[in-house]
């Protein structure tokens, strides 16, 4: 890896560290962490609760800043960008799926999926066409006008996945996407993710407690002592 990260990696980080200041104390959560992810690669991250998985995804997605080290997303070093440029890069290159869907309550499924496209300045008719196509692909073609409160937990996660894929990002980060679902629904979401990841060039980095989901990724890494090790 050179000082610009790794040439064709969609994501790379080097010597990544994060400390939280807790009053007079500084708690080191991540330290000396390295990772490279290539187009289309699917990686699971496992690790005990509190080991720093969400902290890591937030740093990789530019939602939080590292105490040490650098992150390159689609060839750009996040810390070298100002807030606006980082936001634009995130919108273009990244999708996020969380344990709790984080959909906008006042908007329909279609509008929620349109949002990243409209922020990315896709014309509205084109955004609606693409959002509707994606929602159909995740099995929700008949739920376009429903608001999040009118959808089941599994349906909301399907909308969140469609939204994450709206701009055909280089990378989707998923933080326990099935953690809040019953086993049967989780299974359906898993199958959907795998099917989608087979048909797009998007890389997937998924934090999960589910050994079955982890086993279906190309590689599983364990977060342990602030670093990633091959599980
Ligand atoms: N904003 C914060 N301020 C202080 N400590 C935090 C903050 N966020 C997380 N932590 C601490 O960092 C550690 C890792 O948290 P987290 O990344 O959420 O772990 P995981 O997702 O693996 O369960 C935990 O000990 C947690 O208490
Ligand atoms: Mg977490």
Automatic annotation (TrEMBL):
GO cellular component terms attached to this protein's record: plasma membrane
Entry annotated with the keyword ATP-binding: yes
Predominant localisation class: membrane
Entry's EC annotation: 7.6.2.-
Positions of the ABC transporter domain: 11-231
Location of this chain's protein in the cell: Cell inner membrane
Signal peptide per UniProt: none
Membrane topology: Peripheral membrane protein
GO-annotated biological processes: lipoprotein localization to outer membrane; protein localization to outer membrane
PROSITE patterns: ABC_TRANSPORTER_1, ABC_TRANSPORTER_2
GO molecular function, one term: ATP hydrolysis activity
UniProt keyword list: ATP-binding, Cell inner membrane, Cell membrane, Lipoprotein, Membrane, Nucleotide-binding, Translocase, Transport
Domain of life: Bacteria
Entry function: Part of the ABC transporter complex LolCDE involved in the translocation of mature outer membrane-directed lipoproteins, from the inner membrane to the periplasmic chaperone, LolA. Responsible for the formation of the LolA-lipoprotein complex in an ATP-dependent manner.
Family classification: Belongs to the ABC transporter superfamily. Lipoprotein translocase (TC 3.A.1.125) family.
Binding partners and assembly: The complex is composed of two ATP-binding proteins (LolD) and two transmembrane proteins (LolC and LolE).
Protein known as: Lipoprotein-releasing system ATP-binding protein LolD
Protein's organism: Stutzerimonas kirkiae
Lineage, uppermost ranks: Bacteria, Pseudomonadati, Pseudomonadota, Gammaproteobacteria, Pseudomonadales
Gene that this polypeptide is encoded by: lolD
